DNA sequence: GTGAAAGCGCTAACAT
DNA sequence: ATGTTAGCGCTTTCAC
């Protein structure tokens, strides 16, 4: 037999009907022990593997969830992904992953392709989906979780934390330490970075201070952190006593650059970051940062997909995972 | 109409037959311009999205490829993934991604689940698949690419580089610089790490030197690099003049730790790593490392899946992407 | 607890 | 260039 074995083939070998094999595989309890054993033998013997396309067509359950993240190269999303997979794989859920490169339009296109796979749920990053995307999602009638940010009006469910509040709190932390000339170094300037910036600006304004900002739409990197620091310093005649980097990559770059420029950290310049990457705790001086439970966020998102009713009736399907300012030597 | 629109619904609206709609969508050139326009209207009007399960069942083409990597948290694989997606998304190929946590057994299980989705191709990491996995793969009769390592006898196709050679060459590089008491710091000790170690041992043996090794099965991390360095030093009475870390995370950790211990790098101790992460080039002193084209590897793997005949007849379906030793101040 | 029949939505193969 | 027919492999429904 050269073609791939199907249910009938297995059924023939086991001496039962196809539907019995189907049941033995997907709902073993509904089949007598004897037949179950026979079927198992036959499956092994034939090397049968269920055709998920046929199964999905007949049952309208695809066994797949869709995930769209803005970037595969940003380590931050990998930890979220790791959390997603941690929950999904044991549930025998396959994950269809898409990378929209921070573009809502690409996200919209990906969405259309994803939806054609009839996913049983969807995890999307952020809240800036296009109108058309939202329409697609509405029609899909599947559970949807928006992650990373917090929103009052999720498409369906939402898990994340407030980037505004985190930016605000971190700035207050710096101000409480006595820093006054604080600059925000930002790269990419995606919605979440902008919210952090907004929090920063608010806190500075509240304190009657000028919010200094050095930003670029370029993708973030360690190297860029060094460049932004130089720009910020030259743009402000070196009159800075702290920089609040929109993420730890920039912060590391700024720290390395400061060392090259013989600027003492935190003596002459305080540096803080965002995300609390492993390196931040281990460099010298260790970098003050905002810790976020990314792994947890991924896990929670999948749990929400698995039991949507439960979560929708619990805080309106919105979960705030919060954040944590980790004070270290750099500030 | 509350249920999701299908081809017939669209056909009715457009006043054509279902198959025409199907063709207009998947092979526009085969349909007259007039009908194509009509169909497009009808699709938009109904909000139709193709049911990929039905399509896959009828055509036995799923539009999906499967990818299994050993770890989602290891940044190295993310860059490979980024390359994979870079090629896959424009080809409208969906990627089913699995994380086998460095376990061939988990890989085998994932494989079974993946295969039930009838992927059109498979990308696997490394060459240590279980026997049963190999049997499954043989029966699948789809193009398969093993990535990262190089092997003489791939299951189907192979793209990667020789970790043994890289370990060997890096060691020779150190020896040429005059270092003699060189220790290999290894974590995780997955097959590729072991090959690097084998290359190191060979080069040391060739030079008549004792290959010092400090290793642990623990997952690699920056922190662990510091710990391994301490162990290596205390295990060898501080009599080391260089450490060859199995990756850059360890190398960074070793460097940070050395600084804390007031050990001058490279004056008292040379440090080199593997993978050439961004940080390695930017820390002080910059870390000597082995550069590998991971992004390229991912892209190549997908290309091989797309045109298997072409690549199979070209070097037996094996592509050596090589590596590049990047000498920097740390050694 | 098991089976027979029907049909999920699409496309391949064969008309026209 | 367009339509008709049949069937992909499974599960749902209903019968026993």
TrEMBL record, chains A, B:
Entry annotated with the keyword Transcription regulation: yes
Coiled coil: none
One Pfam family in the UniProt entry: Peripla_BP_3
Alphabetical list of InterPro entries matching this protein: HTH_LacI (IPR000843), LacI/GalR-like_sensor (IPR046335), Lambda_DNA-bd_dom_sf (IPR010982), Peripla_BP_I (IPR028082)
GO function terms (MF aspect): DNA-binding transcription factor activity; transcription cis-regulatory region binding
Boundaries of every HTH lacI-type domain copy: 5-59
Keyword DNA-binding: yes
CDD domains: HTH_LacI (cd01392), PBP1_GntR (cd01575)
Signal peptide: none
Record key words, sorted: DNA-binding, Transcription, Transcription regulation
Organism domain of life: Bacteria
Protein name: LacI family transcriptional regulator
Organism: Gallaecimonas pentaromativorans
